[in-house]
Amino acid sequence: MAEPEADWDQGKLSVTMGERRRSGSFTDDYSIHKTNDDATYCKRAAVQLGYYDDPFINRFVQASSSTNDMPIRRDPEISRGYWARVKAFRTLIDQFLQKAGPSCQILNFGAGFDTLYWRLKEEGAKFRRYVDVDFSSVTAKKIRMIRKPGKPDLVSIIANDSSTELYESGHTDLHGGDYHVVGADLRQARELHEKLVAAEVDFSLPTVIVCECVLIYMAEEQSASLLKYLADSFPTVCFINYEQVNLSDTFGAVMQRNLNTRGINLAGMAACQSLESQKKRFLENGWTHAEDWRMDIVYSQHLPKNEVERIEKIEPLDEKELLTQLLEHYCMVVAAKDSAGLGLDAIKF
């Protein structure tokens, strides 16, 4: 789904950006779909400059071959933010994989063009099943990009032995080996359940759900329904959520105004007002454990100091106020149910 940081990808991160005009969209959902493209370009910009390594991101950038290798300019604050997000997610996911073992499952909700599956496979991570979930219009595009010839060969990584065959359903779902892409509206629990069943998800296995800037686009009752469905369906499950927080101050208001100019409504904003409200929606809907951290704290206290020093040399900042403001308005939440006693409630920074 969408990643609102992408709306800060041109010019300085200042209040004046809130006045920038954007082209309109036909529907809220269409506008949300388009921010997936923005986020993909932001990630590629960070990768090109060496913030982190992702040899697969170029396969999902919608650009002609003549421009595909040209550097994309983004503000340093944006690139640092994406690096921190990627590093934070891997820190938490790696802990889950270590605790859950190779029989676990990974579900990526609102996956967009995320490349996490291929990055995990390249690094030798072991899991039973990986499922990307997003709107059907997004998954249809992702499947075409996966199948398109190029290097690295994404299909060969999925079909890692001669017995694996990839097959599509309705041009929006792809199944093969341990990887699945399914088109579903996360606001529709029945549709989501049917797609997870089609992807051969085993609800009894330890499962981690990865979610980046998704719940905020749902009405509170819709996200609550989704979280309750997941808590009721998976006895041993971890939910890792990256999302906005502290939206009631001036900087938060600018973020909202930027999205509004694009026709995007933050329907779930009430749950993003504070760290407490972020945790509360999990604990009120069947999850037994929840912890959260603002991203400025994650960046300054919990990520490896040597790596922070490395990425800060890539594009030095004269002052860090804007970066700090940006990071203060995002958070990581880890919620869990741990019927198997695997220690999922100990996953943290």
Automatic annotation (TrEMBL):
EC number: 2.1.1.233
Class of enzymatic activity (EC top level): transferase
UniProt-recorded name of the protein: Leucine carboxyl methyltransferase 1
Species: Plectus sambesii
Positions contributing to S-adenosyl-L-methionine binding: R85, G110, D185, L186, E212
Family: Belongs to the methyltransferase superfamily. LCMT family.
Reactions this protein catalyses: [phosphatase 2A protein]-C-terminal L-leucine + S-adenosyl-L-methionine = [phosphatase 2A protein]-C-terminal L-leucine methyl ester + S-adenosyl-L-homocysteine
Function: Methylates the carboxyl group of the C-terminal leucine residue of protein phosphatase 2A catalytic subunits to form alpha-leucine ester residues.
Recorded superkingdom: Eukaryota
